[in-house]
Write a structure and sequence with these properties.
Three copies of one chain form a homotrimer. By secondary structure, chain A is of the alpha/beta class. Helices cover 44% and strands 14% of the residues of chain A. Chain A has ten helices and nine strands. In chain A, a hairpin with a 2-residue loop joins β1 and β2. Chains in contact: A-B, A-C, B-C. At the A-C interface, α4 and α8 of A face α4, α5, α9 and α10 of C.
């Protein structure tokens, strides 16, 4: 990735340069910024791999907390649906298998992340960028952020461990509207349901949140990491099992008529999320 | 059941007629309507069996979602306490055993239901009609609905998996007031606690809810069913185990002095729920 | 404990006298009152042992419900940090081992408590007096009560099963601010998050709460105890396992540089909770 935008990397010394991310480490905070603002930070195959690499580095370096946020007005529009249009030589079965393997490893990186992981949700979040929030420790959202997981509309099924974390966090009666019936949550609704820790006014979001994060990064690092691992340790085996089951289910979905028709309709502009 | 009120059954062709229910299937929605309005839809032994049959049929037919609701002003006043007055030849032990077997199978039908299951709570709900709500995927309630589980007042203990689902949904500190100390919840309170998905004004309840349900029934059916099974699959073994334990406990309760005295007081008008 | 303040013990006959508690049994209610108001009811080693004894007695006598509350303006300021200044002959390792054994038994007494256990939180609560609240069945709080668990500030990690109960009750995104980042909750916030059952105005707190508790204590005792055991039985093994893991982690923490420095800073007045 030496040909990437090295702007952010050079001043901080050790930071790696990425094609799709800007990663910095400062004041004990590793910040992973999704950096495809012109595409609403939609996650390409390359971006999945870079995110896993960046999480791996942040988990091992001497930063105290790790933050994920987005460039521009979107937090993340989810899986780039163009990922589904590049059919490999092995056909859709091969594509589904490869996508499943990638998804499994991607979600695993969140389940196993060893330090406090904080989402700074600067705008709308869609799909997998929403579902993995259940694996974050803190989620701060700006007032105009929204949270949308239109799985059934695309003939798909929940991932990111959301089939387990969302009902646990919100209760099944709230989670079903979100995961089955495509309800888009406002930041305030997501906060009331427990998916979001706190909502801030758009005008003061960045300053309020980063003030708080800088204070967090001054706390005893081992105490924080060990406490986080203690909290997540109880359900870790469960989360890995859920991840496996969700991915198996999705691999079947991706080659189903229901899913293919729904995605084609989307690209033909017949359906709108 | 050929002598039942066949009014609703004929027009829809395949629908079965029941003594205590009106079951229809239309626009992808299987609707099971409790139909003893003069008795506040209290559940008789016959009604338990008809409900299990109707759920079995709805789970297997080509409907997309299944709805349970009540006729008249009540959603359901719970177990018909007259069920406890017909002592069979084997005495109270036999009655407790039979009631336990029935309850076990009844709750099992909810745990195993394979499609999105939605409660349209049109009025007060009591006892087992409240407890099984934790096994529904969506619960829409009219503003004047209430939710009441007066177990300890009747010398009994929780069923319908509520000893597990209620603390999980509400947290134990809220669930104990409901399950141990007979707190009656308003629709708004039940919604804040996560037992109810959303509350609607009495005046627009039916039209708002059915508009929404008709839209849900147009979503890809397999995606919905598989997603629901994914969400509920994680805790399915746990729910079956809880059901067994709750029923064992209740069979002991039903033959206890505490319970018999409480039910006698109820019939003698000495106590009021 | 014959030399204790026998004031409260004599009138009720069987009640034991304690150095640090006032325990009474009346109208079916066993009340355990933390009685070091001049020290904000901070828990000394003696007090831990007396609390375990009082819970053991209350669990076996014929009281219907058990209440824990505080004398004076504080509910409880948590572990008396002077417990860490009495280094025994075996050094800090021995101190950590002894403290861990005590903590394990103390939390176990809450997990195994067989009757409805109710906290009457009459003022600020800190540390372990907050974390074990997740093991109570009902938590009533006065409006001015606060809830604070400054673990990472002291280089420590969560106990009292809070690493499991808090994320379960509040969702992980809310729990992390409390358990990792030292957020102090108001009574109203704790109630919205489900840790507290209900909040009452300071002026009417005592009369409203005790009126309610007296009514609860008139309900069928076996039904209440069995229902509570049913509710808690599902997660009992999990809670015991969490307790063991939390204590193991804390024993490592207590002998760590991070923790020792944090506690020294506290005593030197360099840091303020």
């Amino acid at each position: 990735a030496a040909e990437g935008p090295a702007v952010a990397a050079s001043p901080t010394g050790g930071a790696k340069a990425y094609e799709t991310l800007i990663v910095t480490t400062e004041d004990g905070i590793a910040t992973i910024r999704l950096n495809r603002p012109q595409k609403k930070n939609a996650i390409t195959l390359e971006m999945y791999n870079e995110l896993m690499d960046a999480l791996d580095v942040a988990g091992k370096d001497d930063s105290v907390i790790t933050v994920i946020t987005g460039s521009g007005n979107y937090y993340c529009s989810g899986n780039d649906l163009n990922n589904f249009t590049k059919i490999p030589e092995g056909g859709v079965d091969k594509m589904a298998k490869d996508a499943g393997d990638l998804l499994l490893r991607y979600v695993k990186a969140y389940i196993d992340f060893p330090k406090p992981l904080i989402a700074v949700v600067n705008g709308p979040a869609v799909g997998i960028s929403v579902t993995v929030l259940g694996l974050f420790d803190v989620v701060y959202a700006t007032e105009s952020a929204t949270f949308h997981t239109p799985f059934s509309q695309l003939g798909q099924s929940p991932e990111g461990c959301s089939s387990y974390t969302f009902p646990t966090i919100m209760g099944p009666a709230k989670a079903a509207e979100v995961l089955l019936f495509n309800k888009k949550l406002t930041a305030t609704q997501a906060c009331e349901l427990g998916l979001v820790t706190e909502v801030f006014p758009d005008s003061s979001f960045q300053s309020e949140v980063w003030t708080r994060l800088k204070a967090y990064a001054k706390l005893p690092p081992k105490s924080l990491a060990l406490s986080k691992q203690l909290i997540r340790g109880v359900e870790k085996d469960q989360l890995h099992a859920v991840n496996v089951t969700e991915v198996e289910r999705l691999k079947e979905r991706w080659v189903s008529d229901e899913c293919m028709q729904a995605i084609m309709s989307f690209f033909q502009g017949k359906s709108k999320l």
